[in-house]
Amino acid sequence: MTTTGPDTCKVGGHTDIGRRKHNEDSFLIDPELGLYVVADGVGGHKAGEVASNITCQVVRREVAAGTDLAAAVLLANREVSDAVASGTGKAGMASTVVAAVVRDGLCDIAWVGDSRAYLLWRDRLSLVSRDHSYVEAQLAAGRITPEEALTHPRRNVILQAIGLHEDGELNVGRNKGRLQPGSRLLLCSDGISDPLDAEQLAQILMRGGDPEAACERLVALALQCGGKDNATAVLVDTPATADDDTAHDPPQATWTFDSASGSYDGQAPLAPREEAPHDPLGQTQIMSVSEAEQSALETGSGGNRARYWWLALLLGALALALAASLQ
């Protein structure tokens, strides 16, 4: 059902289990608070859905109490961790999250992991969040190109998640700015952003119409394009006005990247990302930077070369044995 927010924003959401056994995604729409959240649980065996639900509820409770959005996300991280420690949660459960507070024409976005926020304005789609992922870290450090990122074997590895980090170790991505009249803000799990590229996302969003219907089309197309994961979308439409104010550009912000830890701090840039990885992926994995790099060495091109050397040595030994037997 499409609802109306405090700024007469129209909002809708939709989720689908995809080809998984459980839907570990959760989403929240609170028009009175102007709060919208998508959380993608990780852990399997229903553990992920517990983590994503706790994340949504804690963020809503804290924002309702006047807590800053990023601080609310940090408190969600603490409560998911506490739930595991107390036994009310399940070991290994975690969640990504992307959340937005839209009030008085201003938008505050916060995220952890690879759930994303996109902004459509004047038929231009921009990615307004940056994944806490191994591939994004490699891009930021200049170690790979955007083209290489599209097919990187570790593009489903995330470096940050709610519930698996101490407060001081969790970096909450942040973006703030003014939403122009007629903008569409999309929050989605990777079940949407992985199988669909930027052009496919933009085509559906540019069709306009009811936000919930648009979310349903996004989810259906993601599954049609080979997506296997739970798929969730929340869409916030700001009302268009006759005197469209063009004095403000979409929000701009800056961030910092620590190549030693592979972590992000501050606010994410709004440079548009023309392409999004769209090959269907397997289950999201959570690793540290060092674990991801070691895994890449073991299974990447270096690992393949090692296997080829062992095969060559084996064939050489067989050839020598055959030659000796013929003498």
Keywords for this entry:
327 residues, 2 domains, five-stranded antiparallel β-sheet
Structural write-up:
With 327 residues, the chain is an alpha+beta fold. The protein has 2 domains: 3-242 and 250-287, 4-Layer Sandwich (Phosphatase 2c, domain 1), CATH 3.60.40; 290-327. It is 34% helix and 24% strand. The chain contains 9 helices and 15 strands. The protein has helices spanning 47-64, 69-86, 134-140, 146-150, 190-193, 198-206, 211-224, 289-299, 301-326; strands at residues 3-4, 10-16, 25-30, 35-42, 94-103, 106-112, 116-121, 124-127, 157-158, 173-178, 184-188, 231-237, 255-258, 263-266, 285-286. The chain has a 6-stranded antiparallel beta sheet with strand order 1-2-12-11-7-8. A hairpin with a 2-residue loop joins strand 7 (116-121) and strand 8 (124-127). Helix 1 packs across helix 2 (69-86) and helix 8 (289-299) packs parallel to helix 9. The protein starts with a strand and ends with a helix. Mean pLDDT is 80; it is low at 251-281 and 294-322.
End-to-end distance, in Å? 83 Å
Q: Write down the overall mean pLDDT.
A: 80
Helix content: 25-40%
Low-pLDDT parts are 251-281, 294-322
What is the radius of gyration computed over CA atoms, rounded to a whole number of angstroms?
Answer: 22 Å
Helix and strand pattern: EEEEHHEEEEHHEEEHHHEEEEHH
Q: At CATH's second level, what is the architecture of the largest domain?
A: 4-Layer Sandwich
Number of strands: 15
Task: Characterize the main sheet.
Answer: 6 strands, antiparallel
CATH topology of the largest domain: the name is Phosphatase 2c, domain 1
